[in-house]
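[User] Could I get a sequence and C-alpha cells?

[Assistant]
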Amino acid sequence: MSELNNTFIQQMSQGQLYLFDCIDSTNEYLLTYCKTVPQGSVCIAKTQTAGRGRRGRQWVAPQGNLNYSLIWYYPIQQNLLLSPLSLIIGLMVIESLQQQGVKDLSIKWPNDVYHKGQKVAGVLVELQTSLPNIYLVMGIGINLAKIMDKQDKINQPVSNLSEYAIDYNQLVICLTKKLHQVLIDYPQTGFKSYTQIWQHYDLFFQKEVSVITETQTYCGISQGINHKGELLLKLPNNEILMFSIGDVSLRQK
C-alpha cells in the first residue's frame, strides 16, 4: 500500500487518498464523511468486512482484490439525470482493465463487468443529499486474486483476473483519472455519447433474457439500452418495455 500511496498521490488531479488495511466498507466511509472529504477523493482498503453490492447483497472482498470508492458531488440545482453514471463507470472499469492487457470483457446491464462469461467486477453507486449538493459515492470491486475460502457466500458464477500480470498501482491511477474526467464532463455530455460503446460490450444484446422485478418476471429479447441507460426488452408480441436501474434483476434464459 505504501507504493500505491506515493505513486498515486503524485498523479491525483484532485481529492485525497484514504488507505485502510481493513474497513467495514469503503463506500460507507466516504458517505459518512461526504461533506468534509475533498471532491474526487478515493478510499481503498485491502479487505472489507461489510462490503455491499447492488440490491443489498454482500460483496465478498478477500485480500488481494481491489476495493475502491470515489466521491463526487454536483449542485442539486443542476437537476442532472444521474442513474446512467453507473453504466459509464462500468465502461471505465473495462477500459482500465484493457490497458492492463485484459481481454474478453463485457458488461451485464447495468454495470457488472464479465470476463469470459463470468463476473469479475461490480459497481455500486450510492447517493446522499445535503443541500446544496447531491453526493455520489461510486464503489468498485474487482476480483484480481483467486477467491479460495468464501465461494459458498457467492450466489452467482464469478471469476478472477489472476492470470494477468496486472499492475495494481497503474490500474488504480488509470481508473481514477478516467473517472475524474467522466465526472467533470458529465453535466455537458450526459450519457447519450456513451450509448453506442456501451452496447458494444453488452453481454446479453440480442439474447433471450428474463427481467425480474419485485412483482413480475418478463421474458424476451434484450435490445440493448436507450439514451437514458434504460434496458430495452422486446416481448414475444413485439412490445418494447423499458426498465430503469433499481430493484431489477437481469438473467439469461
Remarks:
- The first helix runs from residue 2 to 11.
- The chain has two domains: 2-199, 204-252.
- The longest strand covers residues 118-130.
- The domain at 204-252 is CATH 2.30.30.100 (SH3 type barrels.).
